[in-house]
């Protein structure tokens, strides 16, 4: 029977569209179509040698950039292309937020293997675009190149009322030190992705969400800059211990941080208890929280505590105070010990722990 | 005798400084020091979550970005780190020039293997900085990441008087088509680097220089935009045949280009004759010329011819004219044949020729 079976034509295999099949200019056309804008400050977007935009009079511009490389900064085992797009944009908006600025326009360079599926690239741009637009940022241009691994670079511009940018360098001894949200969740979420365990399955979704989809603290940054409530600010991308050093170095002050005041989420505490880990490791030496760390003069503390959470929907918490530089940076433990706090945040070139 | 030779201590091997030995923050400190600026429009450069700068009132901003990856866009066999820095900046300034804008501030992301020598990185930044500053562009920030290969991304902002940017989209049928300098030299220079030959050794230095150290046509762009002499402009980065298509697509016109009018350097002609190559291949399908291709209304032609070279030091040449879109894009050969001119410029995802 087998021999006489009619020789049906094989179903034609449909090759997924890739950069190889549509080419660089086909790719640009496709992305350009999806990124069309009606933003009136953008005079010309993709399709010229450079984009053209009109800055708002009375404002200064902030300018930030980030490069992310597959296998170094992210792993497609854990994050989808759409989530990566959203996160890439969120991380840059977080830098704008730390300056008290409104994001306006971005350019995105992407390096891709030539057989990378277009559907994934489109999902990536959807994530970029969606998160960008929800904070006012428009993608106005970019570059597309071949690469062995997925590489993306974003450069983002924001606007802030002249003279009102939040700098790292304005903290004074005596200021209170505040932080938004909770710390350590993102690093614990990454840990959970890398060490899946049945016993913490119920606990980890919020931690993982924090890692994959961080929320930039845009509203807090804007309230602090427009009401001039903060003397300095920085976003927590490399762990609290590193960021407090950056802030103190730029402001030429020291700091005291109280362990008992650190805002830890119930999920983080439950995860660390179940996995026998120290939450302080995630808080101090973790990374990618994208919370804002900022300093407030004594006279504005009550205004910050009473108004910022209500106006922004984001909790803020005082975790310590700034001191003269000679006193250094100290962690005061629950037991009252005073420990010098070293910067141990993530360093991209250090040997892995 | 050999056995009794005293056992002198071996000279201590001095390890070159690398990213691994100085770390990410050591690297940033080093670069920051070398990039300090007195540019009054830069309020804050490296050392904060984002740089802050003040746009000039009455101006619009142009925004462009480029990503370059080792092994794809350059080969350290042929280009030094310092030259690569200069070229990276020049290529972006060329995009500004094609918009008629003055470059102002840039951010630079760099991905590096951790054992990459710091001396080479410093040479790269010297090239970037030197060429940037000579055209008014200041590096105000960046990102530093680990990578298997050398990757660099630059995002550059420029300023142009409001409403005066040179677009790709303004060409009209009847306009004359001009180009600066000579075409094809850079692609021939790359060919010479890849195919070294004793018989053309005397001819190639100028071609190679054109490839390694392209000159952005900043002055020409500025004269064209400030005097409103051009209806459109584009820089020739991917070969004339591609660029004329971009210009015609955006302007919704066609074009006629006269082969005999194409500006070819004596070096290109001599090289092609010696190597039995067709110079037209380099001119039409080469790349990285970074000349400006621009269109001029009939009434301004004499002004362009008489004044632009004198004021800018850059030769310009009329190579054809714009025609209605329905007539397409035509190359008129020396013999008077009319050939449809297809876009065959460098496409980063196409299989290599």
What does this structure look like?
Two copies of one chain form a homodimer. Mean pLDDT of chain A is 90; it is low at 346-353. In chain A, 53% of the residues are buried. The first copy, chain A, has a seven-stranded mixed β-sheet, sandwiched between helices. In chain A, strands 3-6-4-5 form a four-stranded mixed β-sheet. In chain A, strands 1-2 form a two-stranded antiparallel ribbon. In chain A, 34% of the residues lie in helices and 24% in strands. Chain A has two domains: 20-161, 60s Ribosomal Protein L30, Chain: A (2-Layer Sandwich), CATH 3.30.1330; 176-340, Alpha-Beta Complex (Phosphoribosyl-aminoimidazole Synthetase, Chain A, domain 2). By secondary structure, chain A is an alpha+beta fold. The longest helix of chain A is centred in the first third of the chain and has 18 residues, at 81-98. In chain A, helix 1 packs parallel to helix 3 (118-134) and helix 6 (218-226) packs across helix 10. Chain A has helices at residues 19-34, 81-98, 118-134, 185-194, 204-212, 218-226, 240-251, 266-275, 279-285, 301-312; strands spanning 42-44, 51-53, 59-69, 102-112, 138-146, 151-161, 176-180, 232-236, 253-258, 291-296, 316-324, 329-332, 338-340.
